[in-house]
Design brief:
single chain, alpha/beta, TIM Barrel, 9-stranded mixed beta sheet, 6 helices, globular, binds S-adenosylmethionine, binds the ligand Nc1nc2[nH]cc(C(=O)O)c2c(=O)[nH]1, binds iron/sulfur cluster, binds magnesium ion, metal-binding, S-adenosyl-L-methionine, magnesium ion binding, Deazaguanine_synth
């Protein structure tokens, strides 16, 4: 059985982003990423500053139950890029056996067959401000394979160039539910008051930008709800 490198397991909390925002959920955060986004708010998963533990699917479920008790029925797998890890197949199977709903956060750069078994797949291609380059052929392939599944696209926006990129992505996959997310420009600060004000200003800017865009007529615009509530605190 292939083990999974786990950085943190936490919850219950609420899903603060995207297609099931507000959903009560546990989080399993894996380590390692094939990207290195300039503004990554979870850089400790890949920049060498965090410590991960290799765990079996059984051990992960055990820890979820130890921390969450009976107070959860939904698990979100994030990272890093969880799609790096074949071993997640066993975790998804085990959670399904226990009638626990699953969701995933991934950037759409790597395919895994177990993606077909996840209840809510969020694919978050990266805009130019990240300094990453989207492999559109790969993204096409992944979205095609998931075409009859419950998926969404979520693009984080920091500036006008990012917004143009988001329009291009939404036009390329018009049938996939589309979410715009406010970028957090300071994912390290502990000054929650200033951060909150800045994020709300950026949210207002992003809403105005969306209102002015015909391409975004059916898009949804969201903040990171957990960041508004708890700032850059980890494990929430
Ligand atoms: C940390 S990533 C992990 C999953 C996967 N690697 C990905 O990027 O989709 C989870 C989500 O947080 C978003 N994110 C990362 N840094 C952010 C920031 N500074 N502001 C807003 N969203 C951010 C990512 O775009 C992604 O949608
Ligand atoms: N509450 C909460 N919601 C989230 N949605 C996506 C997250 C992530 O880091 O992938 C995240 C997170 O870290 N916490
Ligand atoms: S793809 Fe996700 S985890 Fe990887 S660097 Fe970018 S935001 Fe961070
Ligand atoms: Mg996060």
């Amino acid at each position: 059985m292939k083990k999974i490198p786990v950085m943190e397991i936490f919850g219950p909390t609420i899903q603060g982003e995207g297609m099931v925002i507000g959903q009560k959920t546990m989080f399993v955060r894996t380590s390692g990423c094939d990207y290195s986004c300039s503004w990554c708010d979870s850089a400790f998963t890949w920049d060498g500053t965090g410590k991960s533990t290799l765990m079996t699917a059984e051990a992960i479920v055990e820890q979820l139950q130890q921390i969450g008790g009976d107070n959860f029925s939904h698990v979100t797998i994030s990272g890093g890029n969880p799609a790096l890890h074949k071993g997640i197949a066993a975790l998804v199977d085990l959670l399904k056996e226990k009638q626990i709903q699953t969701a995933i956060e991934t950037q759409g750069s790597i395919w895994q067959d177990w993606l077909l078994d996840i209840d809510e797949v969020t694919i978050s291609p990266k805009p130019p401000s990240s300094k990453m380059e989207t492999n559109l052929e790969k993204l096409d392939e992944i979205i095609h394979k998931l075409s009859d599944r419950n998926i969404s696209l979520k693009v984080v926006i920091f500036d006008d160039v990012d917004f143009d990129y988001a329009e291009t992505i939404h036009k390329r996959y018009p049938d996939v539910p589309f979410y715009l997310q406010v970028g957090n420009e300071d994912a390290k600060t502990e000054e929650n008051h200033n951060l909150l004000q800045q994020l709300l200003n950026r949210y207002e800017w992003l809403i105005e930008r969306t209102i002015d865009s015909q391409v975004m007529n059916d898009a949804k615009v969201l903040p990171q709800l957990h960041t508004l509530l708890w700032g850059n605190k980890r494990g929430v």
